Amino acid sequence: MPGARHKILGHVLSGFCHKMNRRKPIYGDVLDTPLNRCLTTFDITLLGVGHMVGAGIYVLTGTVARHMAGPATALSFLLAGITSTLAALCYAEFGTRIPRAGSAYAYTYVSIGEFWAFIIGWNIVLEYMIGAASVARAWSGYLDAILDGAISNATISVTGELHETLLSRYPDVLAFLICIVASLILAVGVKTSAYINNGLTILNLTVISLVIFLGFYYADITNWSEKNGGFMPYGFSGVLAGAATCFYAFVGFDSISASSEEAKDPSRSIPIATILSMVMVGLGYILVAIALTLMVPYSTINPEAALPAALGAVHADWAKYAVAVGAVCGMTTTLLGSLFSLPRCLYAMSADGLLFGFLSDVNNKSQIPISNLIIAGFSSAFIALLFDLEKLVEFMSIGTLLAYTIVSAAVIILRYRPIPPEDKSFGVPQLDSPIDREDSSATGTPATDGGSSSSEMFEALTVGRVRAQYAWLEPLAGGRAPGAAVTSCVYVFTVATAALCAHNHFLAPNAGPWALLPDFVLTFIIIACLFIIWAHQQSPLRLPFRVPWVPLLPAASVMLNVELMVNLNALTWARFTIWMTFGLLLYFLYGIHHSKLGEGVTGLLSRSGSGGAHSWGAVDKTSSLARRVGRLGRGCKSDDRKPIISDDELNRREQ
């Protein structure tokens, strides 16, 4: 009996592991969607710009210049922009591969597995929800400051103050209403809301251009001189500290990939919009930082209202009103970007069965997931009404960095994974087993495609295998399924990177030379993993956009994101653990049992091209399993009418 119990337990655990690691394939008509594909490249670019250029350019620039980096704030924004661009390029490649709502969630589902996809999706929900609430609070606070505290004083006189640690000083009714109004704007329809976002973003960019022009017009180069502290008064460490803070000014480009399912031509629009928006936003932040520190000495910058105070110092008081208009427009577009992306993520998770089914309902008239928008709007409004976002806003960083890390790692994994037979981009069948080879020859699957060269066919057939010049690695990395060694190396590389960053973060300053031994070991493991990945054959699949210098560029993105995650404080990790506990309960009690990938043989045999609302994939290795089930059925046709016991056998038993 104990042995039987162990077998049953092992079977249950292996079934759970299989469910957690099942992946969503890419085949069928990925452009088929119940949503409205109406967004152009221009619309998507301004969506990304508007989501990134919000309160940060009016508040964050002054804070970093005054307390962290001085005039070298421009370098901080440059470093932060480079770090964000590495992740943005990975998002752009996935946007061409998988033109679906869900952003990093959908990408992780395809490349790594269901469990990690749910983790990412759950964190994206938190990121967008708190992001929208924080911008609504900033919008309300900015208007309250313009009116000399009239709004806050009136609210306190009616409701009194809230004396709780996590709650705000008073309920911010205006922030609540701002979230509701933004949700109503988005409920009209994606094209109408895109027009509104475009107008506000263009107005905001006009104001930023005016600030840059005035900054250089009133520039005084002596503000960077030694008598005022020089260009780098806080040293290079200050530049790095500023870069860590400036990194979050670029959070929001993932709203571009979240709009993939509503783009007219996602394979073209997503990479172009991603690169254009990153360049525009990066240049904007850098030029504003230079203009601000050239107008006034960094030591006199007012962190609360940096640009209006600097313009007042150079006697350009009239421009302060333009800055106020730009700030309101910028915060509004950031709010619209967060509330635009949040319902799409909920929709994607619900369509896959990981969240409740009603969340995937799409309104026939507006062609948007209206239930999700209502939930997203009221949830963000409730958070903005009651909570102290100075403490909660740190939640955003850890979830965002985790998503960036997994997407960057997933680019490496997919680049070295064989093209499945369902993907006819190259028309080269991938034969995973002798059974599949037999079935391919029996069914007459073509081995070549008219448009494929012999070299491309050879590369396609050897994807994920060790290249000929590195055959000496076969004893270490060979003998496994194509791409499996690369996937293992990516996991080991990520863990080793996290261990290296954590060791250096907690290493005592006066540690002896032996304390550096783990650094050497971990560095060796990281380099070895990258070399083994490099030694494998990449997929020759043609895409409108591919991340260059794989695996080096995505690996650099993973390392930078992990380093930033390690430097988050312990309280942030504790809050993250609490949020993830709720998410894991939801997944194991509901999501894992209702996943669309667990619908049995019927789901396995059905192809995604049938035109259903959520028909872009069913189960990884579907065709292989379907063929085996089909062969089993064909093999039994001649035997299904035979009696269980023949007449001869019955006569022998009677004798």
TrEMBL record:
Pfam families: AA_permease_2 (PF13520), AA_permease_C (PF13906). Residues 636-655 have a biased composition (Basic and acidic residues). Keywords: Membrane, Transmembrane, Transmembrane helix, Transport. PANTHER family: CATIONIC AMINO ACID TRANSPORTER 4, INNER MEMBRANE TRANSPORTER YGJI-RELATED. The chain crosses the membrane at residues 44-65, 71-92, 104-125, 173-190, 202-219, 231-251, 272-298, 318-340, 370-389, 395-414, 514-535, 547-566, 572-590. It is a multi-pass membrane protein. This is Cationic amino acid transporter 4. Residues 425-455, 634-655 are annotated as: Disordered. It comes from the Eukaryota. GO terms for cellular component: plasma membrane. Residues 441-455 have a biased composition (Polar residues). It is found in: Membrane. One of its GO terms (molecular function) is amino acid transmembrane transporter activity.
